[in-house]
């Protein structure tokens, strides 16, 4: 299969790649770039484990052909913390036990970042539950996930207010 | 080659004297929220190839032809493994010599015995090439009619159910009990086939080096997997190294090594380089186990005071045509409700499915939803409140055996959870609580129970001259929190702060930690850790108390306490010495000790050992459309000693949501013509999403159990499903007046 040129900025690093057009963004990350934090649970867009942000929006990377995102900025779970300093969303997932086995967790966290950026759910748990329902958790850590989203959102808003002031 | 994991904890944990009992956050949390936790499929050794399964599209018959040439001609395809060229095995995969060994499909012939059985493996340079190669095989079949459903084949009484439980049990005279009863009920309930659907599909990365084998694969039982692979390949177990630091969920499906995992090893053997094989989601519906469907009939008789005079619980279930696993559903009636006469029995059929297996609360979950529904019906027939009825029939001793309970705080669970829920305001009759939006509200309850099981485990403890400790056991963390809870037990066993303890697990080159299953891992491996700690502390105490220069000289082995990295004289705590000082004086860099975790036969003989709980559910049902929403769940559980309340609560939440799922969501639908599963994917096989999950509360009831094991641990992983599923079903009845008799409850059942 003829490869196609593809430029992506992933977690702030620019990649100039030659990619088989059959390759999904998920398989590019996992199998070619060794960014294995993003998980494959179904490969059909049904579970959300592969959620990443593409140009700031959350998508199922298993449903995206890599070459169709030439020029995009991609954020994966590996790019969320600053070294040992966890992002407030990550810290909140630990504090509220928003996971058990951890396999869906990268997707949950990326989806949380997307949800907060969308600013549609506010602090209404019902809307957060709805907005996080594209990410399955078979361990069913859903309660902790909702608490984590609420707390992280509050932390981020406080930080924003401090920055503004 | 040991597994190096950097575990840490953020934010910093609490500490008030001991590690056990503290609600520490997960020590593997940092790795999991940063994407650094390495699951099996995240490995990528140099030169690795990709293997993809081609699976059967029929349920029964044989493969007539495969277009191997077309697949091999496809760009990037390296090899196609079929029965013709599959490397030889030392033992027949259809042979079995113990009840934990299951027959595997490893391309031993062209026979097909269930849909999604592997018929070939395509190995290629890329995942894309292997996937396309598998599609090019264009199999042709000689198909036979599929045997489908609980009426699809001749039934028989299995030789045993679960693992070695007799198919039939009885005490007292059930027919006489029913005859003499003032009130009787009889009802039949059906439960559906369910698939574990862990988020992580079964995966393996296998690499051979001569006759040594290195494997990354999720396993709930490393030593058992190692032994099974060793037997199949005719190599020594110590030549097989399995790493399983994290499982992306297991729920029983990763208890035994599955056929596709072994096929990954065979593929690596065939091509002579490392191979990664990951099941596609739909391929998990066959070779990786499932919960078999059941049809259960319960008959109960009650006297004028609402006391049970007889319980008869009969379950029909299914296994595969070629192996035995019979869901022990009726055994659920052995332990909960007092009755002078109890009979339980099983029958089964053999169907063209993969072999069913342990799925979270195997038998307990299926049996519980039927039993708790029937108890609700019995309470209704007596005109009694369901809680009052359960208390009237409270078992002071285990009903089937007459043994006393080692501990049983179920009354406290009923009280705590019912008060929290507000149960006393519940009207007896159904359809009495419409809400302001016109939805029918219903309240239901169920009793939860699960046996306190222990297996066998070993651990090794080390104390080092720098004052730190090491604990090693090949424990498996599938999400329940083994990395954290076992480190807590290790810290207390070694008398060290948890930060001073290096805890190693998740690898087959460590002492055998037994199975992460049966809710028994914490008790079993926890006791091995506890005993290993005691053994190494005893050695250390010998060194100190036997040396004249030590302030502990002459204190005797029983006369010291280990705490905070020091040994103290028990009778005079002003006299103490640090571990480092003791080892330095002895000129030792480190000392070690070993411990085992094993059930105590005498106490197991004398006592019935079970965890208990009470679950209360609120549902709202749309009166026009029949849509059911669970809006509130409150559970209280007593399961002996709690090592980490934060993690235990999460286990209860998860279990309770599985209970909701059992009652309302999960069902694998089989096409009656082809025998294929029609909804083998996560869109159509429903599991709860975040929006399905109501407010869930799990209350922890204190329970001391001096008999179950020295730490007093029972187990919490599975009990949450039991009780909850029935509570939801009973709430649906209370909302609508319609008694659900098949699960998951369908909208059409309520509208009928």
In short:
Chain A is α+β, with helices and mostly antiparallel strands.
Provide the descriptors you would attach to this structure in a database record.
heterodimer; A: 165 residues; alpha+beta; Ubiquitin-like (UB roll); DNA polymerase, domain 1; 2 domains; 5-stranded mixed β-sheet; 5 helices; 5 strands; 36% helix; B: 752 residues; Aldehyde Oxidoreductase, domain 3; Aldehyde Oxidoreductase, domain 4; 6-stranded mixed β-sheet; 28 strands; 24% strand
Structure description:
The complex is a heterodimer of chains A (165) and B (752). Chain A has 165 residues and is α+β, with helices and mostly antiparallel strands. Helix content of chain A is 36%, strand content 15%. Chain A has helices spanning 25-32, 88-95, 105-118, 125-131, 142-164; strands at residues 4-10, 13-19, 51-54, 57-60, 73-75. In chain A, β1 (4-10) and β2 form a beta hairpin. Chain A is globular and about 50 Å long. The N and C termini of chain A lie far apart (55 Å). Chain B is 24% helix and 24% strand. In chain B, the strands form 6 sheets. In chain B, strands 3-5-1-12-9-10-11 form a 7-stranded mixed sheet, sandwiched between helices. A 6-stranded mixed sheet of chain B has the order 7-15-14-13-8-28, sandwiched between helices. Chain B starts with 28 loop residues before the first helix and ends with a helix. Residues 9-16 of chain B have low confidence and may be disordered.
């Amino acid at each position: 299969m003829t490869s196609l040129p593809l430029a992506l900025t992933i977690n702030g690093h620019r990649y100039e790649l030659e990619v088989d057009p059959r390759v999904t963004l998920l398989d590019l990350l996992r199998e070619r770039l060794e960014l294995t934090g993003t998980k494959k649970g179904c490969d059909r867009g049904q579970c959300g484990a592969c959620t990443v942000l593409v140009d700031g929006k959350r998508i199922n990377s298993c449903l995206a052909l890599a070459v169709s995102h030439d020029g995009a900025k991609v954020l994966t779970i590996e790019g969320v913390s600053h070294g040992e300093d966890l992002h407030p969303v990550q810290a909140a997932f630990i504090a509220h036990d928003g996971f058990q086995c951890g396999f869906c967790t990268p997707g949950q966290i990326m989806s949380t970042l997307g949800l907060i950026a969308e600013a549609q759910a506010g602090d209404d748990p019902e809307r957060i539950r709805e907005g996080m329902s594209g990410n399955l958790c078979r361990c069913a850590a859903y309660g902790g996930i909702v608490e984590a989203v609420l707390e992280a959102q509050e932390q981020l808003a406080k930080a924003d207010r401090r920055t503004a002031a | 080659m040991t597994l190096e994991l950097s575990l840490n904890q953020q934010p910093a944990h609490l500490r008030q004297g001991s590690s056990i009992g503290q609600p520490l956050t997960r020590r593997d949390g940092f790795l999991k929220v940063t994407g650094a936790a390495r699951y099996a499929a995240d490995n990528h050794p140099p030169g690795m190839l990709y293997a993809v399964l081609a699976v059967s599209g029929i349920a029964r018959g044989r493969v007539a032809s495969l277009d191997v040439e077309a697949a091999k001609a496809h760009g990037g395809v390296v090899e196609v493994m079929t029965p013709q060229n599959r490397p030889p095995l030392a033992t027949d995969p259809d042979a079995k010599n113990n009840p934990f060994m299951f027959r595997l499909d490893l391309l031993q012939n062209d026979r097909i015995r269930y849909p999604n059985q592997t018929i070939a493996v395509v190995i290629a340079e890329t995942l894309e090439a292997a996937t396309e190669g598998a599609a090019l095989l264009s199999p042709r079949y000689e198909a036979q009619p599929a045997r489908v459903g609980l009426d699809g084949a001749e039934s028989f009484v299995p030789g045993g159910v679960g693992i070695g439980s007799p198919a039939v049990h009885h005490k007292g005279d059930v027919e006489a009990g029913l005859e003499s009863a003032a009130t009787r009920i009889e009802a039949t309930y059906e439960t559906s086939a369910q698939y574990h659907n862990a988020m992580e599909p079964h995966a393996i990365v296998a690499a051979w080096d001569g006759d040594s084998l290195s494997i990354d694969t999720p396993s709930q039982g490393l030593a058992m997997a190692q032994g099974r692979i060793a037997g199949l390949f005719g190599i020594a177990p110590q030549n097989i190294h399995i790493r399983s630091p994290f499982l992306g969920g297991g729920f029983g499906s990763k208890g035994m090594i599955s056929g596709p995992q072994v096929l990954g090893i065979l593929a690596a053997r065939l091509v002579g380089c490392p191979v990664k094989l990951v099941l596609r989601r739909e391929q998990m519906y066959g070779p990786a186990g499932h919960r078999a469907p059941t049809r259960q009939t319960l008959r109960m008789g009650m006297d004028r005071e609402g006391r049970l005079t007889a319980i008869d619980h009969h379950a029909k279930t299914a296994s595969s045509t070629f192996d035995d696993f019979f869901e022990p559903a009726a055994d659920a009636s052995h332990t909960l409700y007092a009755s002078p006469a109890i009979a339980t029995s099983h029958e089964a059929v053999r169907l063209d499915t993969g072999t069913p297996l342990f799925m979270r609360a195997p038998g307990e979950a299926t049996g519980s939803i039927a039993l708790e529904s029937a108890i609700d019906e019995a309470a209704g027939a007596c005109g009694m409140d369901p809680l009052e009825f359960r208390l009237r029939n409270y078992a002071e001793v285990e009903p089937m055996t007459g043994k006393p309970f080692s501990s049983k705080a179920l009354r406290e669970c009923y009280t705590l959870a019912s008060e929290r829920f507000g149960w006393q305001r519940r009207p007896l009759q159904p359809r009495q609580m419409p809400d302001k939006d016109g939805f029918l509200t219903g309240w239901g309850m169920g009793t939860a129970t699960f046996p306190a099981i222990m297996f066998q485990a070993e651990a090794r403890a080390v104390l080092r001259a720098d004052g730190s400790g090491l604990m090693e056991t090949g424990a498996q963390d599938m999400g329940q929190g083994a990395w954290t809870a076992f480190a807590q037990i290790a810290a207390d066993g070694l008398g060290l702060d948890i930060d001073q303890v290096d805890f190693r697990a998740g690898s087959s080159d460590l002492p055998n930690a037994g199975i992460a299953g049966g809710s028994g891992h914490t008790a079993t491996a926890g006791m091995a850790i506890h005993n290993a700690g005691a053994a190494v502390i005893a050695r250390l105490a010998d060194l100190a108390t036997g040396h004249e220069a030590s302030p502990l000289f002459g204190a005797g082995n029983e006369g010291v306490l280990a705490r905070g990295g020091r040994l103290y004289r028990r009778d005079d705590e002003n006299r103490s010495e640090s571990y480092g000082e003791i080892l330095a004086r002895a000129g030792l860099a480190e000392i070690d000790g070993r411990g085992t975790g094993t059930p105590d036969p005498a106490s197991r003989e004398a006592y019935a050992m079970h965890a208990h709980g009470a679950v209360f559910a609120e549902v709202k049902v749309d009166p026009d459309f029949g849509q059911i929403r669970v809006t509130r769940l409150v559970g209280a559980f007593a399961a002996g000693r709690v090592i980490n309340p934060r993690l235990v609560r999460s286990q209860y939440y998860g279990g309770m949501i599985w209970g909701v799922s059992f009652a309302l969501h999960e069902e694998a639908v089989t096409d009656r013509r082809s025998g294929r599963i029609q909804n083998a994917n996560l869109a159509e096989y429903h599991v709860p999403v975040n929006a399905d999950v109501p407010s869930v509360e799990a209350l922890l009831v204190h329970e001391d159990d001096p008999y179950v094991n020295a730490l007093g641990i029972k187990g919490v992983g599975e009990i949450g499903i039991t009780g909850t599923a029935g509570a939801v079903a009973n709430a649906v009845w209370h909302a609508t007046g319609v008694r659900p008799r098949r699960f998951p409850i369908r909208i059409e059942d309520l509208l009928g």
